[in-house]
């Protein structure tokens, strides 16, 4: 178990309470923040890269058939593992926007493709449902249940604004607990039904929910009506019968008083670790617990907490999410320290043993053993050398990170020069409408190489030819011309520089 401080690189201002961490296609994604101004990330989804104690954010693009996904805070997020040929995806419902607007929409987020430079592209589709649709809310939970060969989603809890007929000038922005109903979604037919249970007699929000097969456990939560966090624990059993589902609820007396906690899974089995959260409005929960689900029920076990730093212990608030199996990422505000350039202190906590961490790191290194090639110290290319640009994806993974992860407001004017991006090769995957810089040279002029095939020729994006930025800069020196991959296979030099024969020495 380790606690590692992280240094945010020009991105801590984007981290705000209510953000969500997602894991898709092996990448850790940050969701729920406004995108960089005028950049191709209006939905606020960024890829998180942790390396050498630093955290960098990189904007994620969407496919052309995607819908608009607003930056949502505290939505209900449910992960759906791949099954029956369907890809891994996330179901997102509700949430609160930075403009304090509460959403009632449901979205399905999945992976669309990987570009030639290993750049991830996501697809977002809004799911339309009919029936007893839940009202707009945030701070609720959404879980997937499987029963009798069927799959459904169960939504519970949350809070929303006071109804419009009851809103006055004094309570216009006041929020209340949503009615304690359970909503079942069936995506196959797009239907949703509401169910009321006598055991769930009080609304709750910012609670924890864990599901296994046809059972869901609700842990803790906060109630506005009583302004308390009672140690609640409910088990909801859902049987998806023919016709109408059967819901039964059971209350236990060994719950945990907690709200807004972080929960992370520790492996393929149903074992989880709970950390963070609040016991009361002015008291954080500094303990950690291990939660196990099995055939007999749910089990809690106290777990040794990391050695919290003074910043964590003295802060009033903290927030974050799961960063993978047995890992979590959270932030605390830099309160009362004007010398700090960033607004939050970031930490990464890992509950894996050192052997497990070393084993996973070794496996990752074996799968990606070759580092990105550095051409800065390489000798000049001779005329007889072949130029091979079909580099492997892992060689391009970290190229250009030092610049593309940074935001400079002075560079925004260069993005309006879209005329450079009209002509390219047939296999170009760059959309000029959603273009964002990948090389540092693109901040001044597009990183392209000229194909001399034909009378006029045309420009080809260096990303389409899988060129690193260092190699692109080396090729751009001088007046050499090259063919692209669509015109003659590998790019090659059209004409070599003339050789200068030295005249023989003459004796005086």
From TrEMBL:
Transmembrane segment boundaries: none
Keyword Protein transport appears in the UniProt entry: no
InterPro entries, A to Z: Gal_Oxase/kelch_b-propeller, Kelch-typ_b-propeller, RAG2, RAG2_PHD, Znf_FYVE_PHD
Annotated Pfam families: RAG2 (PF03089), RAG2_PHD (PF13341)
GO BP annotations, alphabetical order: chromatin organization; V(D)J recombination
Biased composition (Acidic residues): 373-386
Compositional bias per record (Basic and acidic residues), positions renumbered to this chain: 388-407
Renumbered residue ranges of the record's region Disordered: 356-414
GO molecular function, one term: sequence-specific DNA binding
Residues given in the record as Zn(2+) binding sites: 424, 428, 451, 458, 461, 464, 484, 487
UniProt keyword annotations, A-Z: Chromatin regulator, DNA recombination, Metal-binding, Nucleus, Zinc, Zinc-finger
Protein name, per record: V(D)J recombination-activating protein 2
Organism encoding this protein: Neogobius melanostomus
